[in-house]
Amino acid sequence: MTGDRERVEIRPESEHHSILERYKRGETGNLLELHNKTPVWNDETQSYVLNFHGRVTQASVKNFQIIHDNDPDYIVMQFGRVSEEIFTMDFKYPLCALQAFAIALSSFDGKIACE
C-alpha cells in the first residue's frame, strides 16, 4: 500500500519477483501483513473464544478474525457460523469484497474433518 492508502499493483516479471519471494527476502515495503486474531481462554466455558459482538452465534473451527499487528482492536475481517449451514462475513478496509470472499472460501478447505 502507498502512503495514501492506495493499493499497489504488483506484476512480477519472473518467479523471483513474486509476492512470496519478496516476502521471503523481507522486501515488504508495499505489502500489508495480516494475521488471525489469537483467541483468549474463557474459564467459564473452558474454551478459547473471540468476541464477535453478537455477529457469530455458534462455535466452529471455521470462525476467525483477521487483524494487523499495529492495531489488534481493528478487525479487518471476521467470519463465523450462525447456524448449521449458514455463515456470516464482515470486512473493512483494506480488503475489498472479492478478497474477503476468497479468504472466507479458503476457510472451508482443509477443515472438513475438524468438526
**Largest sheet data:** 4 strands, antiparallel
| Mean pLDDT over the residues | 88
| Series of H and E elements | HEEEEEEH
Query: How many angstroms does the end-to-end distance come to?
Result: 37 Å
* Helix-strand makeup class: alpha+beta
Low-confidence stretches: none
Helix content: 10-25%
Labels describing this entry:
two-stranded antiparallel ribbon; four-stranded antiparallel β-sheet; 14% helix; 115 residues; alpha+beta; elongated
Task: Describe the fold and architecture.
The protein is α+β, with helices and mostly antiparallel strands and 115 residues long. The chain has helices spanning 19-24, 97-106, and strands spanning 34-36, 40-42, 47-49, 64-68, 71-83, 86-91. It has a 4-stranded antiparallel beta sheet, covered by helices on one side. The chain has a two-stranded antiparallel sheet with strand order 2-3. The model has no long low-confidence stretch (mean pLDDT 88).
List the helices and strands and how they pair.
Layout: H1 19-24, E1 34-36, E2 40-42, E3 47-49, E4 64-68, E5 71-83, E6 86-91, H2 97-106
Antiparallel strand pairs: 1-4, 2-3, 4-5, 5-6
Condensed summary:
This protein has 115 residues and is of the alpha+beta class. 14% of the residues lie in helices and 29% in strands.
